Amino acid sequence: MKEENIIHTAIENLKRTTGYKANWVENTKGNFDGVLTINFNGREIAFVVEVKQEFRLHHIEDILKRNRDENPLIIAMRLFPNIKKHLRENHIAYLEANGNTYIEQNEILIRIDGQKPIQPEKTRTNHAFAGVGIKLLFLYLTNPKWINKPYREIAKKAKVALGTVTKVNNALKKLGYLVSIDDRTLMLVNNEEIIKRWATAYADELKPKIKLGIFQLDIKRLNNWKNIDFIDNNTVWGGEPAADILTNYLNPTQFTIYTKLNTTTLIKNQYLLPVENGQVEVFEKFWDFQGDNQKTAPPLIVYADLINTDDSRNIEVANNIYERYLKDI
């Protein structure tokens, strides 16, 4: 469902569930999408609105920084329970497309849950942010020089079909992310937007497919995790431990490993024990180049690991990593 349709569907369902009418005015300037004025039995209250298909915690942190003093309201196709909880704790109003609502304004308090979810419409896949296109875009974002290599070389390096390179490049051009500098040179633009969009696509589509399992590490090795020697470049830290290595600003409680080894070898070499509620998640290392830090995944992976959690501490460090390592790609 397009954002415009989300807004009008949400307004209709707000009236259905509460009886309150609302008026929407789009904003074409500034850092918010529009103003929603709700008539509470003759009393009108205006909200500064941000609209998205789906909100994540880092979106909320951005809104709190920009619009905290402007009576913000979030309109979304859907909101996950932890996001709703975070919004309520910060007294931020929200409205889902299905009519689920939280509004707290002086003596006005409205909270509606339990409305049947609206099934999202099927949309055409954007090749840059789906399937193997995520791997190819990762190569571009991590090593921008590859954008201007011959297509066959790109396909071989990213381990994708030759046709994928054409589809992804065309998709990026259509979205305005890949532009021509001259007849022979292409360059990625809109850096912050494309990185955040890639991080979301990676977490939603690729990361679940490359998960190898959840494990437990014995407490002695866990307490001395920095001294663990993975021996070669087949295995590196991701997530919280990688963030601590890159920033020295995060004491990890959950551990992420990326590896090219099979789980049997990893269990034998690192004394990992498969358990349902372990603190070590293991994923396939799908790239074959060495980053600047030999002990960690590339900063883009670490950023994506952290920014897609519901932990404000992780999100703060993810933004630190963006400023240090990704901002000037």
What does this structure look like?
With 329 residues, the chain is of the alpha+beta class. It folds into three domains: 3-112, 3-Layer(aba) Sandwich (Trna Endonuclease, Chain: A, domain 1); 127-189, Winged helix-like DNA-binding domain superfamily/Winged helix DNA-binding domain (Arc Repressor Mutant, subunit A, Orthogonal Bundle), CATH 1.10.10.10; 209-326, no CATH class. It contains twelve helices and 14 strands. Strands 1-2-3-4-5-6-7 form a seven-stranded mixed beta sheet, sandwiched between helices. Strands 11-12-14-10-13 form a five-stranded mixed beta sheet. Strand 1 and strand 2 form a beta hairpin. Helix 4 runs antiparallel to helix 7, helix 9 (239-247) packs across helix 12 (312-326) and helix 11 (299-307) runs antiparallel to helix 12. The radius of gyration is 22 Å and the shape is globular. It starts with a helix and ends with a helix. The model has no long low-confidence stretch (mean pLDDT 88).
